[in-house]
């Protein structure tokens, strides 16, 4: 594998000194880019794009051609694991992901296989290898998965949900069934991320998009415990380098102390928590990633630079900060705006790394 030319993202995750704060954007390969929309149209549909290693590689690298980003993230979807379990993932236009088969009973859970990621999700590993080769050491490649709780919400609800009625009913009425499902998902995610690492991913992120809909004790029991299991089972060194693990729970700012003890190297923050408060609470135990509101990218250049300056000042001096949005970039953002954001992070952060 080619030597890494820009490793500041990996160094920041390990709280090592960097010259400037590294930056990438969640969902940076996405619908806001006209070139992405063109490639997706060429593929025919979203899953066909995910399953074509050349096109998945193309869209992964598209944002790096426009912006001076410090990391690339694998182009895929969090729902590849439930799909590999036989649930029949499909996408309705304007409605998001849906499954042909829904998990509601103990018998449903018993019937679920734990996929062998190397074979059942080989298209993801082929994409990782292709992207890593194409990057040729330019920046590190991030692999990712959904958290067991987040995957379970889609599998039990049958798609997106506003009230999480079915999974919360399972949680309170038959918690042992939900634990059985989450345990299978934790095994699946651990294998999935390890295969991504062996295929060339240099850091991994666990997206716990729906952990924030839980109460504190239930978050610990049904979400964080399973992410901790995954962290404990991951390959943490590969190609002579530590493979950092990032955990991101949307609306999870109230649980930072518990997350800090989970075995992750870095915690992702959404925009509902001030990064100075977060840093005071986690101390020097983990790095922090975040946390500008993606909607700031609708603002003027002065507005974007002001928000970047504020977050950098709040974090303050020293290592351990990866700049990111607090969630994925919105599809309606003008593609010229992220350049202002990325360049501002590099320009305005140098003073904090003297």
From TrEMBL:
Question: What EC number(s) is this enzyme filed under?
Answer: 4.1.1.37
Write out the similarity annotation: Belongs to the uroporphyrinogen decarboxylase family.
What name goes with this protein? Answer: Uroporphyrinogen decarboxylase
What functional role does this protein have? Catalyzes the decarboxylation of four acetate groups of uroporphyrinogen-III to yield coproporphyrinogen-III.
* CDD domains in alphabetical order: URO-D (cd00717)
GO MF annotations in UniProt: uroporphyrinogen decarboxylase activity
The record's subcellular locations are: Cytoplasm
Using the UniProt record, give the first listed, main subcellular location.
Answer: cytoplasm
Positions of the record's site feature: Transition state stabilizer:
77
Q: In which pathway does it act?
A: Porphyrin-containing compound metabolism; protoporphyrin-IX biosynthesis; coproporphyrinogen-III from 5-aminolevulinate: step 4/4
Among SUPFAM superfamilies, the record links this protein to: UROD/MetE-like
Catalytic activity, per the record? uroporphyrinogen III + 4 H(+) = coproporphyrinogen III + 4 CO2
Q: How does it assemble?
A: Homodimer.
């Amino acid at each position: 594998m080619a030597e890494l030319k820009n490793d500041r993202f990996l160094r920041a995750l390990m709280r090592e000194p960097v010259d400037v704060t590294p930056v990438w954007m969640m969902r940076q390969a996405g619908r806001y880019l006209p070139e992405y929309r063109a490639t997706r149209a060429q593929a025919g549909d979203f899953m066909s794009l995910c399953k074509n290693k050349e096109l998945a590689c193309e869209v992964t690298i598209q944002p790096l051609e426009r912006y001076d980003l410090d990391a690339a993230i694998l182009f895929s979807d969090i729902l590849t694991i439930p799909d590999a379990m036989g649930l029949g993932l499909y996408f309705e236009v304007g409605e998001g992901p849906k499954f042909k088969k829904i998990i509601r009973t103990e018998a449903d859970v018993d019937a679920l296989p734990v996929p062998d990621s190397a074979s059942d999700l080989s298209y993801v590993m082929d994409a990782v290898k292709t992207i890593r080769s194409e990057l040729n050491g330019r920046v590190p490649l991030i692999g990712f998965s959904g958290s067991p709780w987040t995957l379970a919400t889609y599998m039990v609800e049958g798609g997106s949900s506003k009230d999480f009625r079915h999974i919360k009913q399972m949680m309170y009425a038959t918690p042992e069934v939900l634990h059985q499902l989450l345990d299978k998902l934790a095994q699946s995610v651990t294998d999935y991320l390890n295969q991504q690492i062996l295929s060339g991913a240099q850091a991994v992120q666990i997206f716990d998009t729906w952990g924030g809909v839980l109460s504190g004790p239930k978050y610990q029991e049904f979400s964080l415990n399973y992410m901790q299991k995954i962290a404990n089972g991951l390959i943490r060194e590969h190609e002579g380098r530590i493979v950092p693990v990032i955990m991101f729970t949307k609306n999870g700012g109230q649980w930072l102390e518990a997350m800090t003890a989970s075995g992750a190297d870095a915690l992702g923050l959404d925009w509902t928590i001030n990064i100075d408060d977060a840093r005071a609470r986690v101390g020097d135990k983990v790095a922090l990633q975040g946390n500008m509101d993606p909607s700031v990218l609708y603002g003027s250049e002065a507005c974007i630079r002001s928000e970047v300056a504020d977050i950098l000042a709040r974090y303050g001096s020293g290592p351990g900060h990866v700049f990111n949005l607090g969630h994925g970039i919105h599809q309606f953002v003008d593609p010229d705006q992220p350049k202002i954001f990325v360049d501002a992070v590099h320009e305005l952060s140098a003073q904090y790394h003297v």
